[in-house]
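Re: [help] complex structure
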Amino acid sequence: MHARADAADTAPNWHDDIFATLQRFDVRQVPYVPDAGHSKLIQRVLGSSSMRGIPLTTEEEGVALLAGAWTGGQRGVLLMQSSGVGNCINMLSLIPILRFPFLTLVTMRGEWGEFNPWQVPMGSTTQGVFELSGVKVLRASNAAEVPAVLEAAAAQAYNALTPTAVLLSQRLIGAKVFTK
Amino acid sequence: MSKANLLDRRQVVSALLANRKDVVAIGGLGASTNDITAAGDHARNFYLWGGMGGAAMIGLGLALAQPKLPVLVITGDGEMLMGMGSLATIGLQKPSNLSIVVLDNEAYGETGGQTSHTSAAADLVGVARACGIVDSRAISTMAEVEAFAKAVHDVTAGPRFANVKIDSANVERILPSRDGTYIVNRIRGDLGFQPI
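Output below.
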């Protein structure tokens, strides 16, 4: 699991800070592809009475789902991992065309002490893929900055219809370690 | 190529939308969006011109946001095959107000009529049922289409799925608006939501 997190940088409650922000912005639909970095947030969502956690089979489903949610009057947020961003590329075209509020929280792999080379190519291009697709990118690298970054991201996504991705860095989450 | 006794796509869609009342209808990328337009432009029509594979998920997001409204996705076999995983996602959520109709001509009509997987291997009704959509039907008559059209209005008994075998004739293109923001905001306005 997530060993080797930087103790000084990692407070245990940053998931709660994210959840509180999403609640305050009246987020109702939370599509996700299961991911260790998001697991505590997913538990909070599944235990919530106001949010609906929606497991997906692939990340691009979540982009289309959020378009439908907005058409029906609800806000949502897509939870995924950096490798899933690549699965979304064509579906991201719906965002500028339909002009719906898009917020995604992305746990990063392929950086900061990664042990698995297969995660590096997509992790290295995640930010570029978003920017080429018209999605603004913000990053949270330590627990202390999570609340401010989430607040800024949610505000510009939902209030200014500015599609936004928050990259939750591997330094924040803690690099996954399977090796000895 | 064309087989006997297959249904006409425009007749099928006209029957599905003839007495639509408050239904929100979502077309798939391709001819199904034109079919919905041919049945009559409507403030609650969602025309998909891109994002192939997304129609059923747009329907799911809308159905979950508006659980008392009947939401009807009308798409093609190629579009549904591309988003086949979404049937598993829908089967898990079980939105009781969502109905999905696939107009299955066993071909990619928009791109030259190349054969699709449903012609020989893929049974979409079987897939939908195996994904947990209990009410999954294969439809081959107009009477069955009309019965399904009535069922769409029961927002307590879905989700439901129908695969309708249609003939592969090319029909006149009747094109709706391509302005996605207009399409979405028109539906939102009709549902009572103000612009931001």
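The mean pLDDT of chain B is 96.
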